[in-house]
Amino acid sequence: MSGEGRQWQGTTDGASWMHRALIVLMGFTPLRVIYFFMYFAIPVYMVANRKGYLSIYHYFRRRLGYGPLRSFFHVIANHASFGKVVVDRFGAYAGKKFSIEVPDMELYSSLSSRPEGMMQVSSHIGNDEMAGYFLKASKRIYALAFGGEVSSVTENRVKMLSCNDITLVPIADDMSHLVVLNNALASGEIVNIHGDRVFGSSKTFRCQVMGAPANLPAGPFMLAAMRGVPAVSVFVMRTGCRKYKALLFRLDEGLEGLERNEKAERMARAYAASIDSVLALYPDQWFNFYEYWDE
After folding, report:
1. Alpha-carbon distance 143 to 74, whole Å?
2. How many CB atoms lie within 10 A of CB 30?
3. How many Å apart are CA 31 and CA 26, to the nearest integer?
4. How far is CA 85 from CA 90, 91, 179, 242, 286, in A?
5. How far apart are CA 184 and CA 207, in angstroms?
6. What is the pTM of this model?
7. Counting CB atoms within 10 angstroms of each CB, which of 6, 76, 154, 176 has the fewest?
8. Which residues, other chains included, contact 36 with Cβ-Cβ below 8 Å and sequence gap of 6+?
9. What are 38-71's pLDDT values in tens digits?
């Protein structure tokens, strides 16, 4: 990603004291009440974050083919969905309980219980953080994380994730995080990496995402191919108040015997196809607030 219109912030808005106050408030306030007041902030956020608004508008117009008015209303719905996802994250920090339906839990349990490691490719679609809080695996998970998050969010994430035997691995300028992730796979553990944003490396695969070319990071797919471990994409989609559904897609099926680079690229394409499948069902839960495609 390059250029002024293709930058993403990567951190949660607001100061640490605001986050801590919100967590305390959520301890005794129903989530629906928080959602109600959140709606009043949506118009302000859309005006203040004009680039983000336009990028989502272009997503509905160009990728989904909606008309101008329909796209505008879906931008509002998208911002409302994002607001609820953020509220739910802080609700989890405050001890609120959520349910996650996992139709393919048998597949996930089978793959994660194998002696070899597993690559889990997540995204900025839905609420992937909820998977770490409520989706149980049978072994330790090492999750690659952006290292510039505010302290209040990082502290609560670490607290929640450590309860599920999940270790955050911050992205390092010297790329040493790759050594940690490679060693985790070699030790038979699970590695989780976002596969929809390029950050920290120039190596990418050019794939069709929602009918247009986009660059996906090569890292998660190359690691999986190099180690010969199974790979799945995981999307945790919000379906209602305190309700989520985890959708799983196997990325490495039928790729046995392929050369490493070809196998990695085929997995990247399978991941792109899984994005298409999920957004066909949940178009308002696309949360990449920048010009994702080149056009």
Report:
1. 31
2. 12
3. 7
4. 9, 10, 32, 10, 11
5. 27
6. 0.90
7. 176
8. none
9. 999 999 989 888 999 999 999 999 999 999 999 9
